[in-house]
Amino acid sequence: MNSRRYNTILITGGAGFIGNHLTRHLVIKYPDSKIVNLDKLTYAGNLENLLDVEDRSNYHFERVCITDEVETQRVFQQHRPDLVIHLAAESHVDRSIVSPLEFVHTNTVGTANLLNQAKKLWQEDGFQDELFYHVSTDEVYGSLGPSGYLYEATKYDPRSPYSASNAAADHLVMAYYHTFQMPVIISNCSNNYGPYQFPEKLIPLIINNIRHQRPLPVYGDGSNVRDWLYVTDHVEAIDLAVHGGVIGETYNIGGHNEHKNLTIVETLCDQIDVKLNNPVGTSRKLITFVKDRLGHDQRYAIDAAKINSELGWSPSINLREGLSLTIDWYFENATWLQNITSGAYKEYYRKMYKVE
Predict the structure, then answer these.
(1) In the predicted model, is pLDDT for residue 179 greater than 90?
(2) 139 noted as active-site residue
């Protein structure tokens, strides 16, 4: 396996959930590389997530929206990245149902703008030793039945504005590869979870609600199946793919942790009851079934054999261990969670970046 090296790595969405883990990982592991975190700081972006690396000499932050052509061009010309890892995206399916155009603008138009800025910069030297790495989702493949898996060659069949906007972005990335010979790699991952995840998502939402003895909302009958990937496992996979993956290829990154949503909620209930010394079944009483999400896909399950065979990656953290680690982190970082739910987290950078 060939190993590429990069002088300047531009991460979009580096203050978000997956982004902050990846940014921290790269800043620490590659001290001789300049790591540029480009983030608009929407509601899901939080610079408090990166307090432990913000003073490192190889870390730089740019508050820029990926749809802003003028500012993104400035960033590309000023920092001249030879690797772009594109994570910035609107990512919550429920929000995409309410505001689909916002998802198209950010996820599709924003990706097109980044591709164009990279092309303009990298064409100067004929695309030598550069890479545009696009982090996408398994949801672009659509819903599976009770059996079978999603493969890299699975036909795209997105069912929500969120997944459709990501599918369009994926197609644009490959279009730049085929049309301009721009070096690209795409990865499609399953549901991530772990520390620093914004509490609108299922796992941190359930943990927070159990702590405060609030109802635990479960869509429909809870039978929808997802594959769960611990966030640091995902970061390791990205690191391997950007340094050794095959240009023009797609890699599916899955956790090998396929479970019904109801099973996830019940497991969280039981683990938290043990940690809090509650009688068995205490937290399960909070489970509340709510009206199902519009167009709710029944099942996703990724086959990650390709990245395993080509790059030697496989997930190291199983679901039970990962959920326990996640619960412990949220319990130990109650102030962080309180700042998120109250909106106080924005105070950290509100004055500096004039964020409302």
Answers:
(1) yes
(2) yes
Q: Which CATH superfamily is domain 8-193+230-256+297-318+344-353 in?
A: NAD(P)-binding Rossmann-like Domain (3.40.50.720)
Task: State how far the Cα of 66 lies from the Cα of 72, in Å rounded to an integer.
Answer: 7
Q: Which of 62, 90, 130, 138 is catalytic?
A: 138
Return the SS3 of 188: strand
Catalytic residue flag (residue 71): no
Q: Which of 162, 176, 251, 349 is catalytic?
A: 162
Residue 162 appears among annotated catalytic residues: yes
Residue at token pair 């459709």: 164
Residue (of 239, 285, 294, 251) closest to 266 by Cα position = 285
Q: What is the 3-state secondary structure (H, E, C) of the chain?
A: CCCCCCCEEEEECCCCHHHHHHHHHHHHHCCCCEEEEECCCCCCCCHHHHCCCCCCCCEEEECCCCCCHHHHHHHHHHHCCCEEEECCCCCCHHHHHHCHHHHHHHHHHHHHHHHHHHHHHHHHHCCCCCEEEEEEEHHHHCCCCCCCCECCCCCCCCCCHHHHHHHHHHHHHHHHHHHHCCCEEEEEECEEECCCCCCCCHHHHHHHHHHCCCCEEEECCCCCEEEEEEHHHHHHHHHHHHHHCCCCCEEEECCCCEEEHHHHHHHHHHHHHHHCCCCCCCHHHHEEEECCCCCCCCECCECCHHHHHHHCCCCCCCHHHHHHHHHHHHHHCHHHHHHHHHCHHHHHHHHHHCCC
Distance between CA atoms of residues 69 and 327, nearest Å: 40
Q: CA 105: distance to chain centroid? A: 18
Q: What is the pTM of this model?
A: 0.95
Q: Of residues 39, 62, 82, 139, which has the active-site annotation?
A: 139
Per-residue model confidence as pLDDT tens digits over 219-272: 999 999 999 999 999 999 999 999 999 999 999 999 888 999 999 999 999 999
Provide the residue ranges of all domains of the chain, joining segments of one domain with +: 8-193+230-256+297-318+344-353
pLDDT at 209: 96
